[in-house]
Amino acid sequence: MRLAAVRLGGEVRTAVVADGEAAVLPAAAPSVDDVVRGGAEALDAVRRAAASAPRRPLDGLDLAAPLRRFNRDVLCTGWNYWDHFEESKGRREGQDPKERPEHPTFFTKGPDTVIGPYDDIAWDPRISAKWDYEAEVALVIGRDGRSIPEERALDHVAGYLVANDVSQRDLQRAHGGQWLKGKSVDRTMPLGPWLTTADEVPDPHALAISCELNGERLQDASTRQTAFSFARIIAELSWGMTLRAGDVVLTGTPSGIGNARDPQVFLTGGDVLVTRVEGLGELRNRVVHVPLTSD
Q1: CA nearest to 17, candidates 52, 60, 50, 44
Q2: What is residue 282's three-state secondary structure?
Q3: pTM of this prediction?
Q4: What is the reported pLDDT for 96?
Q5: Taking CA atoms, which of 106, 122, 144, 165 is between 20 and 30 Å from 235?
Q6: What pLDDT does residue 84 have?
């Protein structure tokens, strides 16, 4: 099932997406967040409501980010495609390793970064001079767990989304080698376009992933190329640390980022970014100047 959040009449409603249409559910129906946390019972309630809900063409609907309640910061994985690890070696400073790590690299980004799949990405050159793009698959935890065994890790996934981990590279390197600041600028991470439930994704490591900037494809890869499987990410992230239903985990970006290109390519006002993952949909976002500092 594909579960979207639709802005309609001043409120956000849940919708079930299929065949180019969206069955928009009544306001009392569970939200996508409710479904993630409520499991099979909440999903059944959505399925029943969708059976009699009016269908609307998907084109033209105003989609919000499917998830809007966060337990914590968004959990993220760095350097999870070896080609991206290698392309970034020449741009590193501080504490970044030069040799391939034996374990996934984790960091977080603030939930106020999250925007809808077609919303504008906020851009303010006073905040940073190096705005970069990163196409990613995001997974959503659907069942609490701590020290989850790798062989059972995907049983804890409620579904998958498309994300773009827009990053500010100069901020990322400016604060002692940690990445939080350069990953947490408000209104910069599109997420969506809907939550595709895990049963609809038989092999999450067989998905084409791409990113286009102004019509030029700059990232083009497959999740087969990940350095660490999604199950390994969940197992290591949860080691001694409880993952909660509703936690969002980004799984890393492939090569082709702007910071590693020669010459470098960074986002600027008016750019259009299209992020696609096979079977999960696409994000389409314009980069728009938004003042993020006081004058």
Answers
A1: 50
A2: strand
A3: 0.95
A4: 61
A5: 165
A6: 85
Cβ-based burial of 285 (10 A; exposed 0-12, middle 13-18, buried ≥19): buried
Q: Supply 180's token pair.
A: 């939080």
Name 243's Cβ contacts closer than 8 Å, sequence gap at least 6.
141, 144, 145, 146, 148, 156, 234, 237
Separation of alpha carbons 41 and 52, rounded Å:
18
- Chain centroid offset of residue 62 CA: 18
Rounded-to-integer distance, Cα 244 and Cα 39, Å:
13
99: pLDDT confidence band, cut at 50, 70 and 90?
confident
190-244 per-position pLDDT tens digit:
999 999 999 999 999 999 999 999 999 999 999 999 999 999 999 999 999 999 9
Between CA 98 and CA 90 the distance in angstroms is 9
DSSP 116: -
Q: What average pLDDT does the segment 29-46 reach?
A: 95
Asked if residue 291 has a cis previous peptide bond (ω within 30° of 0), the answer is no
Do residues 273 and 133 touch, judged by C-beta distance below 8 A? yes
Buried (b) or exposed (e) across 167-178, using 16+ Cβ within 10 A?
A: bbbebbbeeeee
Domains and CATH numbers, the chain: 2-64 (no CATH), 74-289 (3.90.850.10)
Q: Which of 137, 79, 86 is nearest to 104 (CA)?
A: 79
The confidence band for 87, taking pLDDT boundaries of 50, 70 and 90, is confident
CA distance 189 to 183: 9
Alpha-carbon distances of 235 from 58, 65, 201, 207, 241, rounded to whole Å: 36, 26, 19, 21, 10
